Structure formats: C-alpha cells, structure tokens
Amino acid sequence: MNDVLLTFILIVIKLGLVLGTVLSLAAYMVLAERKILGRMQMRHGPNRVGPFGLLQPLADLIKLLCKEDLIPERADRWVFMLAPAISTVTALLAFAVIPFAAPLHLFGRTIPMVVCDLNVGLLYLFALSSLAVYGVALGGWASQSKYALLGGLRAMAQMISYELAMGLAIVPVVMASKSFSLTAIVAAQQPWPNAIRHPLAFLIFVIAIMAESKRTPFDMPEAENELVAGFHTEYSGMRFGMFFVGEYLNLIVLGAMLTVLFLGGWHGPLLPSVCWFLIKVLGVAFFFIWVRGTMPRLRYDQLMAFGWKILVPLGLLNILVTAAWLLWRG
Amino acid sequence: MSLWRDIRGTILPFWVTLRYLFRRPVTVCYPERKQTPAPRYRGRLVLTRDPDGEERCVACHLCSAACPVDCISMQAAEREDGRRHAAWFRINFSRCIFCGLCTEACPTLALQMTSEYELASRELLQVIYEKDELLIDGCGKNDGYNFYRLAGIGVAAPRGSNPGETPPVDFRSNLP
Fold it and tell me: Which of A167, A176, A166 is nearest to A198 (CA)?
C-alpha cells in the first residue's frame, strides 16, 4: 500500500514538474524569440514590463484572457472552439514519452526520468505530431473565411509532404538502435550522437521539423503578408493564445525530439543530465529563432517540390545505404 | 558554379544575423532618453511678443487662411490707439499637421513654431490651445522685429520717429 502511494506521489510530482516546466518554457520562448529577433534587427525587443521585459509573457497572458472571445457568425461553432485545444493538447501530450534525464535513484528505487516510457514511443510521437495538423486544418476550415481556409489547406499539404520525409529520416536511427523506445534510442547513442553517425538523416530531419513547426522558411499556413494570419485569422483572445502557445510548445517538443533522436539526448560530460537536455533543447530552439531571423519564406510550390522531389528520394536513398551498411557490418 | 553560389547564399546570411545579434540596438528608448530636436523642428505653435512686450499678432487671419486643415480660428479686435489684436485666438492641435504654412504666412512674425512635440493628452479639449496658452513672453526666433515700427502707422510710436523713417512732410509748410 505504502509503496503504491509513494509511486503515485512520485508520478504526480513528475507530471507537475514536466507540465510546469514545459508551459513556462513555452511562454518564455515567445519572449526569447521576440528579444533575439529584435536584437538581430538592431531593436531592443520587449523591455517595458518588468526588468528587461521579463514579465512580458504574464502581461500578454492577462491581455489575451481579457480580450473578447469572438466567434464568427457563420463559423462552425464547435469545431471552431475545439481546434485551438487540439493544437495545444497534442503538443503537450507529445512530451509524455520524451526522456529528459538519466534515471534517478531515489528511496532505493530507480525512477525513469520520462513521464511514460512507451516501447513504441517514437510512433506515439509521430501520431501526435500528425494529429496536431488537425488543429490547424480544422481551425482554418471552421472559420468560414477564405484566408483561414487557404491557411488550413496549405498546412495540410505541407504536413503531408514533410511528415513523409520526417518518417524516412528516422528509419536509419531506428535501424541502428533496434528499438522504437526513445529511452533505448538515447542509450544507443552513447559514444557518438546520431547526428554524426547519420548526418544526412539529421539534415533531412532538421528541415522536416522546421516545416512541421510552421516556422519561417516554411510558414506558409500563416504567411502574414499573403493570408493576413492564415489559419488563425478569425481567432481572438485566449483561443488565439492557445494556437500561439501550441506553436511554441511544438517548438520545444520538436527541439526535444531532435535532441533525443539525433543529438544524444541527455548524455554529456560534467554537467547533470537534465542540464544537458535543456541546453540541447534550448540550443535547437535558438537555431530555429536564428533561422527565422535569417531566411525568407519559400513559395508554396517550391516547398512542395523540395519536399517531394528532394527530401523524400534522399531519405529513401539514405535508408538503403544505411541498411546496406548495417547488413555488411553484420 | 551556381550550386556553390546557392550554398554560399544560404550560409552567409546566418553569419550576418549572428553578427547583428551582438550589435548595439539603434532604437532610442524614448521616455527615458529624449533626442534634442533640430533647431527648425516644426513642433507646437506659439504667439510671440515684440521687443516692447506687446502682442505681435494683428489678427489679420492670414494664418487661418493658409492653414490646410483649418485648425486656427480667431476674433479680431482693435484697441483705442488703433492697434489691432486678437480678442481670442484658438489652435486645435488635434487637427494641426505641423506643416508650418501659418508661420510662413504670418506678416508680423507673431506665429512661430517651437521644438516642443509632446502634445498627447487623454482629454481632447486639452489639445485645443487658447490664446493665454499660446502667448509667450519672449520674441521667439526673431529678436528685435516690431511690425508697427516698420509699418509706418503711428501706433507703437508717433509717425516718422521709427528707424529708417523720415518725419511726415507738413504740407502746410510747403504752401507758397
């Protein structure tokens, strides 16, 4: 009985810690992005609320909560209300299978530092990242607005083109580590991270998750100078806020995915494993922001052509080569 | 080779943005740091006085005629000694576009622009300036100019006693 209770308490503490960290990280990711983008454009970025603008996320939250929650008259009411929740919840759920630190030894037991160590964790992750498209596509469709519809449509097409390349990019990783469990994949990259062992897969995966996160070189769904705001044109208040938070949660989840699959997870010298994981995730996030500050948006057909004509064949070739190499090495 | 050029063109911008990340922002944080406007900055309008301390404005309505947005209005009046002045003078700064045409039109150099630019207010009526708010004590940018001393009208001083004037001819003394 006591043992069960202790396990339960530990799980609850772990859940709370992960949820709190991920949500506040997402909020501050918004601030970090605005600051870094500002500096890259020789501006200050937000610096009015609190010291160095550190309370800006809080001010934004209050503002979004106080805004009028507008639902267009001809919108599909329930789908319209559900869509932002889908994009936030899928991003949050995806974090359940990501191992963020080395197993902890506490009270004479080993606590795995992952919310749930699924043996098909990778598939779960992919399922959720595909589901996240529903939030965007349904939101765009339910708004009854041409811009939103076009944004949702683009999001769908983009996800279909890039999910495939993304899936092909991780096949070599799975082949090398012989497991779908993320913990096993992290353990398999002990001496060298997968980014060095499978550089081509790494490159394809980075480009694919950039498209997956709907960020700058591939931000067609919300291309603000063509489609007003794309799929969230008609959203206001906290519903818009949920799309926004979902996008940044997604950024963190994708960063964590890249870390776990290719950058060696929580392995690293000297520092504790959680620190290494955080450093790597934040590094990936910084890279994403950097890309946003640097690259222009691709045209729609360029994006599709790049996905189908270059990334998918490259991914297939990479699988063949890796499989041949693994067979030859025995 | 074009592929090499494309790769260079993709990588180099990253170096540029990274360099700019560590540059000092060019933004001036306004309420804390204020820039000094240029000497001829077109800010708030004032009504100046001549060196004798009298109002320069003679209520000729040229400024309100020149104003493209019709933000100046006044009522002309005359003192006992014949000097014209504005009974009331009103500038609506919520309309004013700070073009400076009124100051160019002003023949007595009464209406002048200052470099004051912080006119924002929560009360709309507070940006409508009346004569007592517009009138300042100094001469503004033109020290020493006194319209009535050059106009040849005997208001500021008896006729002919102003600089550059000869006394009026007493035609009776010219009679044969």
Answer: A176
